[in-house]
UniProtKB/TrEMBL annotation:
GO terms for molecular function: glycosyltransferase activity. It comes from the Bacteria. Residues 20-206 form the Glycosyltransferase subfamily 4-like N-terminal domain. Residues 414-523 form the Glycosyltransferase 2-like domain. The keyword Transferase applies. Keywords: Glycosyltransferase, Transferase. CDD domains: GT4_PimA-like (cd03801). Residues 690-711 are annotated as: Disordered. The keyword Heme does not apply. Its EC number is 2.4.-.-. This is Glycosyltransferase.
Length: 711
């Protein structure tokens, strides 16, 4: 496997910023591949050429635009179009013989940093056989949106608006120019126009850190220390320190007079006169080893006012068990439904975070250790290696035969994951399953329903995380029902649980479902839409593991969190494969209960359900669901006495949705309006298509038997 990285900088053995550190860690994780880094010859890249440096090719370049533009105009142009490579680098890359040869031989070309995105069309021509990967360290449109909101002068607003337009255009084109997109956080993925095309690779920030008891004292042994880390040649860091010293630090010093603020990070001589001075504030410059600073600090301060992307220094502190004081920008993208750090954007609130950590170090430490435990899982080395293998590993893989003929002891439960083109999100679900205590005994069956992407190869990257992992071919018929049935027939356990490739189970999910199936034939978990943090409190209180099916009849368990005893599932013939647009789990749960089977809800089996991210995808999803709801009504209208379908009623509902769309758009947003329009349109289509009652489905198996409650 030959991988060529095209990057504005080299992996640096002594990284000065988070991006350099990530590139170094990525290079280390790919040590078995033949790798080469192509970068422009800049002072920073030259400084990174040290013993043990990565195999590299530095390309001299000439910025000819400087010859024809006045200095001020050149700088304005460069800052407005910040999503661009070094001027002249593309021309030099195209003309460099060694670079052209390396790119022509490459299996993968990885373009690091969104600033290099404009190189993609050129790289596609120079590396026609390679798979192109684009890695976003930040999503530029978010940064430009904030710059536009903060701009005060007309010139600043114009510059930010131009940069924002360019960034958004490039982010839309990224899906066309690159084969795969990589981001470093779920937050960044959610910002992109096509989140379903981007894979998250969480940096291994917790891999080489050890949580320890911070002393909280400075170098003089007694004064409690507040720590800020970040290179001050970056403007967002200077602005953060300025606000911290001017607005926050006086409040802290009044409450804790002997508090010390230690600022660590590169401080060029040209910038030194610009940094603010105050009693108790020390500038240490670049510090090679940060372990001692973390150990001797009571709290890390991250008072960022600008910026985008996940702040690695915050994650490093969390992983070490160091208390943190954060603004919302410093905290964004960090945390999930299991752990979310606190933040405050006011000077008083931010100061209160610092004062609390300085005055109550033991209590702050206990809170911080919860974050450390979370970070060790989310940002550990094992998950990083698996995700890197998922992105950079072989492009294809083979399916396993659908067979239960295995002499190994049968697992206690089989997890079936149906997937069609789910390579981007499948790592999230597999990592969540790998974090379960019983992962070493789990059987995972990924049922590939005709994927055209790298779903099979991605699944193979996780083979070592479980007791058994197989990928079975379910492409003979399209639809999740067929994929689940094929996966269930391949299961060796007497219990099977179905989860989806684009969701993420929470800790304890598998154990809760397994235990519920001790006394029931089927068990439904609790899907919540809280992927980036705790679910909405009102929604969490209203949510139930079992849901009332359409038309106010029997309950059902949602298919992305449904456990069933294997003999019961196969005895009833599995899921009805004629339901290709949704409600297949409703139909199965109804059929199960009508046959005398038992269905229970399991509130402790929580799964974070990923909603469709755009109005268009939401419209299409709800349109399909509504058509399938009418298929369900047609199937059971006579046996359950459901209200009959009415074309007139469906047409009126669609008319109301269209007439009030503009009003609802202002009140509820585009996605909610799209969902309502999709549901009402699908309802009308389904009513017309399924207006005649259908005969109840016959079991798919000749030996179908009436299920009985499990012993």
């Amino acid at each position: 496997m030959r991988i060529v990285f095209v990057s504005p900088m080299l992996p640096n053995p002594k990284p000065d910023n988070a991006g350099e550190r990530y590139l170094l860690q990525l290079y280390s994780a790919l040590d078995t591949a033949e790798t080469l880094v192509i970068a422009p010859e800049t002072p920073r890249s030259v400084a990174a050429v040290q013993p043990g440096a990565a195999a590299h090719l530095l390309i001299p370049f000439d910025d000819r635009s400087r010859r024809f533009m006045p200095r001020r105009l050149h700088n304005a142009w460069r800052h407005a179009f910040s999503v661009s490579p070094h001027a002249g680098f593309a021309r030099a890359l195209r003309q460099h013989p060694a670079a052209r040869r390396a790119l022509a031989r490459a299996d993968i070309v990885d373009v690091q940093w969104e600033s290099s995105q404009l190189l993609l069309p050129l790289l596609r021509r120079l590396a026609p056989k390679a798979r192109i990967v684009l890695t976003f360290h930040d999503v530029a449109s978010q940064q430009k949106t904030r710059e536009l909101a903060a701009a005060r002068s007309l010139g600043a607003r114009i510059k930010a608006a131009v940069g924002l337009a360019q960034a958004r255009w490039l982010e839309r084109r990224a899906h066309e120019w690159a084969d795969e997109l990589v981001v470093l956080s779920e937050k960044d993925r959610s910002i992109l126009p096509r989140p379903d095309r981007a894979t998250v690779v969480y940096p291994p920030i917790a891999a080489d850190v050890v949580a320890h008891e911070p002393s909280g004292a400075g170098a003089n042994g007694g004064d409690p220390r507040v720590l800020f880390i970040g290179p001050l040649w970056r403007e967002p860091n200077r602005e953060a320190v300025q606000w911290l010293v001017d607005a926050v630090w006086p409040i802290v010093r009044r409450a804790v007079p002997n508090a010390q603020l230690h600022v660590a990070g590169s401080l060029p001589e040209s910038i030194a006169p610009l940094v603010p001075r105050a009693p108790g504030v020390t500038y240490a410059g670049f510090v090679d080893d940060l372990d001692g600073l973390y150990a001797s600090s009571a709290v890390l301060a991250a008072p960022l006012q600008q910026g985008a992307g996940v702040k690695f220094k915050v994650l490093e502190a969390i992983a070490r068990g160091v208390p943190t004081a954060l603004t919302s920008i410093a905290a964004e993208g960090i945390g999930d439904a299991v752990f979310t750090p606190h933040s405050d954007d006011s000077a008083e609130g931010f100061a209160a975070q610092l004062i609390d950590a300085l005055r109550n170090p033991d209590t702050a430490r206990i809170r911080a250790m919860r974050g450390s435990e979370w970070a060790s899982r989310r940002y550990g080395w094992a998950q990083f290696v698996r995700r890197v293998e998922a992105v950079y590993g072989p492009a294809a893989g083979n399916h396993d035969p659908v067979s239960t003929d295995d002499r190994r002891p049968a697992p206690a439960i089989t997890v079936v994951i149906p997937s069609r083109n789910g390579a981007a999100t499948l790592p999230d679900q597999l990592d969540a399953a790998a974090a379960e205590p019983e992962a070493g005994d789990l059987e995972i069956v990924v049922s590939d329903n005709g994927s055209q992407d790298r779903t099979v190869a991605v699944a193979r990257a996780y083979a070592g995380a479980f007791g058994s992992l197989r990928v079975v071919d379910s492409s003979a018929a399209q639809g999740v029902s067929h994929a689940r049935n094929v996966g269930a027939r391949a299961a060796r356990a007497d219990r099977v649980v179905f989860i989806d490739a684009d969701d993420e189970i929470r800790p304890g999910f598998v154990a809760a479902i397994r235990q519920a199936l001790d006394d029931a034939d089927a068990a439904g978990g609790l899907p919540v839409t809280g992927r980036l943090g705790p679910p909405d409190p009102a929604g969490a209180e209203a949510a139930t593991a079992l849901r009332r099916a359409p038309f106010g009849t029997m309950d059902y368990g949602v298919g992305c969190a449904l456990g069933v005893r294997t003999d019961v599932l196969l005895g009833l013939g599995g899921f009805d494969e004629s339901f290709r647009e949704g409600h297949e789990e409703v139909e199965f749960c109804w059929r199960l209960q009508l046959a005398g089977g038992t269905l229970v809800g399991v509130p402790g089996a929580v799964v974070d359900y990923r909603q469709r991210p755009t109005p268009r995808s939401s419209f299409r999803q709800l349109r399909r669901y509504s058509r399938s709801a009418e298929q369900l009504r047609s199937r059971y209208v006579l046996s359950l006495g459901l209200p009959p379908a009415s074309v007139e009623r469906a047409a009126k509902a669609l008319t109301r949705a269209v007439l009030f769309a503009a009003r609802d758009l202002r009140r509820q947003g585009a996605i909610e309006v799209a969902r309502r329009l999709g549901w009402t349109l699908g309802g009308l289509e389904g009513t017309i298509k399924y207006r005649r009652p259908a005969r109840p489905a016959q079991e798919h198996s000749t030996d179908a038997a009436k299920p009985s409650p499990a012993p």
